[in-house]
Amino acid sequence: MELNDIEKEKVLIEHPVLVQKVKSRFGKSIIETVIFRGEITHVIETRDIADVCNFLKYDLDFQFNFLSDVIGTDCRPLNSFFEVVYQLYSIPFRNRIRLKVRVKEGESVPSVTSVWRTANFAEREAFDMVGVVFEGHPDLKRIYMPPDWEGYPLRKDYPLVGYKDQYNPCGVEKKK
Amino acid sequence: MADTLEATTDNAELTTREITLNMGPQHPSTHGVMHLILYLQGEKIVKAEPDIGYLHRGMEKIAENLLYGQFVPYTDRLDYLSSMTNNLGYVSAVEKLLDLEIPERGKYIRVIVSELSRISSHLLAVGAWGLDLGAITMVLYAFREREMVLDLFEMLCGARLTYNYMKIGGVRGDLPPGFKEKCTEFIKIFPKRVDEYETLLTGNRIWLQRNKGIGVISAKDAIDLGLSGPALRGSGVKWDIRKDNPYLVYDRFEFDVPVGTNGDCFDRYMCRVEEMRQAARIISQALQQIPDGPVNANAPEIVAPSRQDVYNNMEALIHHFKIISHGFKAPVGEVYASIEAPKGELGFYIKSDGTEKPFRVKIRAPSFVGLQSIDLMSRGAYFADVVSVISSLDPVFGEVDK
Is the whole-model pTM more than 0.90? Predict the structure, then answer.
């Protein structure tokens, strides 16, 4: 048995509900479930993310009442999509779980601000840095960068030194 | 003039026009980058909107372009009032990714420095808060004890602000001679000093009137807005990662988690004061229990040899050079590790693609998350109350504008 299998078995014994119940309730919405270092990640169909979050927050077996973070990741050029990762925590049960959706350029993700208000800033950050659009967000605008800023700094194709302009003479020349 | 007065008397209710006021920077740790847009109706707050992003430091982008070990010193500059805990948050995440266990002595040292950090951070939080509300003496007293903690940190790593002491797999060096005695001495006198702060502030009529019943946030709202640390515990939610998901050796110490009842600024102040006492309690137990032994994990492919070996042994020098310049590969996967930093849940999410550099690092900074609650806490309050609200959240912009 490989180490990862032992780890998976341990997680399944300790937290059967986090894997089995979510799978049985949202079987069709779950693309993949990964267990790594004792952490559970469910990859969810993008359109169902708000429903899954709502369920995980209010179901008495889960009570994931605390949203730690919403993370935007540019997975290119290895893959063709962006990931949005939701880091959930249950204060009553002391459990953590991670949800993940994958979107392509031009697609949007349903906002979870109606489930946890804290998602407001976190989603704005993911939008500002990676360019993921959250549908239904009450005030989706840039949070760090000026409103007229072009590009998304945490995308893999965005240069580390920025693009060349009048304020940044050492930047990279923009491709036309 | 007479017409105007007459007109005013005719209208029984004075009507005022809503104005927008750009406030800040006002709190010491918001230095130049805390721009709060306040919508006011007279002196009452209708809406408060934090406008951030003036530092443009791109910490997460930098992390993707550095080796795992090279990013540790950058974390010092996040919440720079508590650099040790930032180091700890990041190295814990990398160690989790690598599945690396550090020796007992290393864990105890990490607990001691984390709790000293908590004391120094809370001292500045309470001191600056006093300063904001006109109690200038408080900041002088707070700095008196903070200097003692900084002396201890200077013994450990030679720095007084950006301490780069923790490293992946352990700490940079064992406790220096005399550290234990000096730390014990500090812990002995510190509770009496906390009594002095309480004499100065806790019973002070102005302090009470400026903080009691101000910036009230319910437990439900605080959880919903993602508050953590003293800001959440002030609302009566007993969630402390050190107790609920213990890391290092926190489960071996006896300490209490103080919580408030009203969720106002005063409760958040009392939580911090009591947390300082509890931190001293933890350090005292850790100093008594600390075992002998190595401070770094025995993983030569990840942990660089000690400085002493590098100076005296050619093989160790080559080994050191190899690790520092080439780093190490981490397995493919993603982890999230969080610690109870002085300001709340400090989390690091790392996604690895199997190379020597992280594919993505995301920092969950408590100050950034806490800013969202200013609006809810200030609505309907007076303009002057916003000052207390900001201070009670203890924001540090190094980790907000990351």
Answer: yes
